[in-house]
Amino acid sequence: MGERGAVAEGLRAYRLIAGMWVRSSMTYRASFVVTVLGNLTVTGLDFVGILLMFSQVDSLGGWSLPEVAFLYGLSVTSFGIADLAFGSMDVLGARMRDGSFDTLLVRPAPVLAQVGADRFALRRLGRITQGAVVLGWALVSVDVDWSAAKVLLVPVMVVSGAAIFSAVFVAGAAFQIYAQDAAEVQNAFTYGGTTLLQYPPTVFGKDLVRGATFMVPLAFVNWVPAAHVLGRPYPIGLPGWAAFASPLVAVVCCVLAGLAWRTGLRSYRSTGS
């Protein structure tokens, strides 16, 4: 089977497994609605914290509330999409410990599709909805001289950001294969990463900003392109074209994450349980 055929097979397997979990969750519709609303409320508390901060100050790191809301909406929406698609990968370590990961290896379906779609949870739509609402409010409230390029850059940021976070999920799962767990390390870059990006880069030290730009390029989810949209200089002086590099960064991250995943699978040794 060629590379294209393998991708098609993986997407088909993912769709079938995710569909099974969706049908399961929709069996009890009232419980599903309550869970989604609860998820939306819990994730919304992050933005409530930001609102409380701005009740005491006029700006945060020199950024106004609509500008911070713009960062927040981009980060949460992008992460929410990736979490919906690959959020179950953080339990890979537990699967290896209890031996259920071995079961996935012998099934006639790509392992990545099986792990990614495992326990697919529509309740995570609450995070996406909440982030999109804040982003929508920010777009109409922020003081920006909109151009065609800036308007186009907004959906590009959301899609590219989701791809970057997805790559981090996959790379983190590959690391769990080597470490035989370490889910907390993966969570530091996924859940911790989206929390980091909800605030302006100007409130962090330059070493941290450099690390989030060049080592794990989460800055290209929103910090770098958003600086262009808002007419702000990036803290470490990147060239202007970097604002449009998010799609390229996303592709590179996905390729590297795929290579890491394949390498991890080849090095996997069963626990024997």
Number of helices: 12
Count the domains. 1
Main pleated sheet: none
- The overall average pLDDT, rounded, is 88
Given helix and strand content, the structural type is mainly alpha
Strand content: under 5%
The beta-strand count equals 0
Radius of gyration: 19 Å
Order of helices and strands: HHHHHHHHHHHH
Overall geometry? globular
Assembly annotation: single chain
| Uncertain regions spanning at least 5 consecutive residues | none
Protein name: Transporter
Organism: Streptomyces hawaiiensis
Transmembrane segments: 30-57, 69-87, 128-146, 152-175, 208-226, 238-261
Keywords: Membrane, Transmembrane, Transmembrane helix
What's the structural blueprint in terms of helices and strands?
Elements: H1 3-25, H2 29-54, H3 65-86, H4 92-98, H5 100-106, H6 111-117, H7 125-141, H8 148-179, H9 183-197, H10 206-215, H11 223-230, H12 246-267
Helix pairs in contact: 1-6, 2-3, 2-7, 3-7, 3-8, 3-9, 8-9, 8-11, 8-12
Structural write-up:
By secondary structure, the protein is mainly alpha-helical. The chain has one domain (45-111, 124-267). Helix content is 72%, strand content 0%. It has helices spanning 3-25, 29-54, 65-86, 92-98, 100-106, 111-117, 125-141, 148-179, 183-197, 206-215, 223-230, 246-267. Helix 1 packs parallel to helix 6 and helix 3 crosses helix 8 (148-179). The radius of gyration is 19 Å and the shape is globular.
